[in-house]
Amino acid sequence: MSATVQARGPKNMLAGKRPLPAHITVYLFVIVPFLALVTAVPLAWGWGLTWLDLALAAGFYVLTCLGTTVGFHRYFTHGSFKAKRPLRLALAVAGSLAVQGPILHWVADHRRHHAFSDKEGDPHSPWLFGTSPGALARGFWHAHLGWILDRDLTNQERFAPDLLADRDMRVVHRLFGPLTIATLLGPALLGGLITWSWAGALTAFFWAGLVRITFLHHVTWSVNSVCHMIGERPFVARDRSANFWPLAILSMGESWHNLHHADPTQARHGVRRGQIDISARVIWIFERFGWAHDVHWPTAERLAKIARAA
């Protein structure tokens, strides 16, 4: 975000700067996995990719993506349902394994996004710089990745006081470093033990560790960028959020973004025929097992109220 926007933004929105060592780490975890993804293209056509690597990458992708969508997003940020303590802890850990930042930072940033969506104060709107082609290109970069490289920290006392008051969440927040190591070395350990070889460990580290992390990063960031620029808008929202169906499965339903911004606390985002929402189905399973309760399922009356007139 530009200095001008920050200066004019709402008071108490920011809480200082990210410490330099942490900021350098952010750059590393953006750049290194991305280089791994670029390297993956020629490797996929040559050597170093096995069915085990694909299986491990898919398994860790599903686990960490759902940790982000069901856990960090729908549960911790928006309170779409209530969860028993073991599930609450599991979701916090699974979301942290996605390496998208510690839980307190993630939730505070996203609540700030909703508070000022597509306006000054939004940490990752693509519309902050204007509507000319050049401004939109700059806005897309900012919404997709640029905002993450900004050192400004969102004020957690303002946007996430409930999590700050939760000892469990403070502990998970502080364990982000070890959990990052675990999400990288976990696939390598499994690959090495299953194949009983260093080569199996190395390729699993590459594909199910680095490549999987950066692929999930860009799927998540595309919801911030693409889903606020193009797509359908069947519901009335106070911003430019839109549904972008090509990302529906990879994002586990997060790209049904228009309904989410029209009614953020709903546990299901894909509510129309054919709109696959894997995250909502997982929440439904949690509810059936008694692990989740007080789920905010959308009703026909509520959807009719926020539907855009034909």
UniProtKB/TrEMBL annotation:
Coiled coil segments of this chain: none
Membrane topology: Multi-pass membrane protein
Locations listed in the record: Membrane
UniProt entry keywords in alphabetical sequence: Fatty acid metabolism, Iron, Lipid metabolism, Membrane, Oxidoreductase, Transmembrane, Transmembrane helix
Domain Fatty acid desaturase: 50-269
InterPro entries with a match to the protein in the record: Acyl-CoA_DS, FA_desaturase_dom
CDD domains assigned: Delta9-FADS-like
Transmembrane segments: 20-45, 51-75, 87-107, 196-215
UniProt cross-references to Pfam families, sorted A to Z: FA_desaturase
The family this protein is said to belong to: Belongs to the fatty acid desaturase type 2 family.
Stated name of the protein: Acyl-CoA desaturase
Lineage, uppermost ranks: Bacteria, Bacillati, Actinomycetota, Actinomycetes, Micromonosporales
